[in-house]
């Protein structure tokens, strides 16, 4: 009987110390609060959550990750500022939304390079320095993908660039300069209003990435996708600078390594997702209609020219360096 009591007491002590050790370990973890630009299940965040899974696998014993949510938690247009202030530590946000704070942010989509080519050319270092110096944010990397680009959708068939004149498109800031140069009008509205706007002919078309119409049901109210797609979708991974540099250096390096590993995985995966979307929209009745070759080339040239005008207007010196690097 006495031996049984001793064993029971020993078990209690072991359990106590195990719980104590577990609590102590949890207390040592640094909490990383996370916000995304759109809802958790948005296809734009596929690469980010792959990145987050890798973080948990490799650094889960040292960091505690808490996903707060999307724009329902921090309004979309406030997310960069709140990240800069440390309201949350880690974000997956579109680069073009940072242009008011970091003028060269628009250059993140003004190229046709892979993420690792951007790094190899030294452009990544320029972007990172600009975000850190101007906005207390560390630009870690991107979740851009193969053929995952912006494209225009419409209810009119564009047979030449002249067909854009006088038409009205729902826009995000990223493609406003292009459409204005083509003579089209632009309006902004929440994503949730695009379906009704197309159905009621409030707009003639809208800009969106090569993935999305299937999820939102826009194939029901949209006749055409106008090719070619142009800028790569630049939704990127950002960390609050103050919080990032408080982490141990080995943790910082591991996070940076994970970003680069994931960039390559995501790039190919998006190629598959784009191909699936293209097949799906056509099955739903949407036609993918390319502009004639000469007009398509001019269209892409205008997209780049107008985009770079905006960057150079905001930061002529750094913008020129990036233009030279990214245009090679």
Molecular structure report:
With 328 residues, this protein is α/β, with parallel strands linked by helices. It folds into two domains: 24-143 and 233-271, 3-Layer(aba) Sandwich (D-Maltodextrin-Binding Protein, domain 2), CATH 3.40.190; 150-232 and 273-326, D-Maltodextrin-Binding Protein, domain 2 (3-Layer(aba) Sandwich). 47% of the residues lie in helices and 17% in strands. The protein has helices at residues 2-28, 46-59, 79-85, 115-120, 123-135, 176-181, 194-199, 213-216, 241-244, 249-283, 293-314, 316-326; strands spanning 30-36, 63-69, 90-94, 137-142, 150-154, 168-170, 185-187, 205-209, 224-227, 235-240, 287-290. The strands form two sheets. Strands 7-6-8-5-9-11 form a six-stranded mixed β-sheet. α2 runs antiparallel to α10 (249-283) and α11 packs antiparallel against α12 (316-326).
Topology:
Layout (H helix, E strand, L loop, with lengths): L1 H27 L1 E7 L9 H14 L3 E7 L9 H7 L4 E5 L20 H6 L2 H13 L1 E6 L7 E5 L13 E3 L5 H6 L3 E3 L6 H6 L5 E5 L3 H4 L7 E4 L7 E6 H4 L4 H35 L3 E4 L2 H22 L1 H11 L2
Parallel strand pairs: 1-2, 1-3, 6-7, 6-8, 9-11
Antiparallel strand pairs: 3-10, 4-10, 5-8, 5-9
Helix pairs in contact: 2-10, 11-12
Question: How many strands in all?
Answer: 11
The helix content is 40-55%
Number of domains: 2
- Report the CATH C-level class of the largest domain: Alpha Beta
Low-confidence stretches: 9-26
> What oligomeric state best describes the polypeptide chains here?
single chain
Which CATH architecture of the largest domain would you pick? 3-Layer(aba) Sandwich
And the CATH topology of the largest domain? D-Maltodextrin-Binding Protein, domain 2
Order of helices and strands: HEHEHEHHEEEHEHEHEEHHEHH
Q: Helical region count?
A: 12
């Amino acid at each position: 009987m006495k031996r049984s009591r001793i064993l029971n007491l020993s078990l209690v002590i072991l359990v106590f110390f195990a719980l104590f050790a577990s609590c102590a370990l949890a207390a040592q973890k640094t909490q990383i609060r996370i916000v995304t630009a759109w809802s958790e299940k948005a296809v734009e965040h596929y690469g980010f959550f792959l990145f987050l899974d890798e973080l948990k696998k490799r650094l889960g014993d040292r960091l505690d990750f808490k996903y707060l949510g999307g724009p329902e938690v921090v309004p979309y247009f406030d997310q960069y500022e709140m990240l800069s202030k440390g309201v949350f530590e880690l974000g997956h946000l579109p680069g073009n939304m940072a242009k008011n704070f970091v003028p060269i942010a628009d250059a993140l989509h003004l190229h046709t390079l892979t993420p690792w080519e951007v790094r190899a050319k030294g452009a990544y270092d320029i972007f990172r320095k600009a975000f850190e110096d101007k906005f207390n944010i560390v630009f870690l990397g991107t979740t851009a993908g193969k053929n995952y680009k912006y494209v225009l959708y419409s209810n009119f068939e564009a047979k030449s660039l002249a067909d854009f004149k006088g038409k009205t498109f729902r826009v995000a800031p990223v493609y406003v300069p292009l459409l204005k140069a083509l003579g089209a009008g632009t309006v902004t509205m929440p994503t949730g209003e695009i379906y009704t706007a197309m159905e009621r002919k409030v707009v003639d078309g809208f800009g969106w990435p090569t993935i999305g119409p299937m999820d939102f049901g826009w194939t029901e109210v949209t006749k055409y996708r106008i090719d070619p797609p142009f800028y790569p979708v630049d939704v990127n991974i950002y960390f609050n600078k103050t919080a990032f540099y408080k982490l141990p250096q080995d943790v910082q390096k591991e996070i940076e390594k994970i970003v680069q590993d994931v960039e390559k995985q995501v790039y190919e995966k998006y190629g598959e997702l784009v191909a699936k979307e293209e097949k799906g929209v056509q099955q739903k009745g949407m036609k993918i209609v390319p502009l004639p070759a000469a007009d398509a080339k001019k269209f892409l040239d205008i997209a780049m020219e107008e985009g770079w005008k905006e960057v150079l207007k905001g930061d002529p010196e750094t913008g020129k360096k990036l233009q030279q690097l990214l245009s090679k």
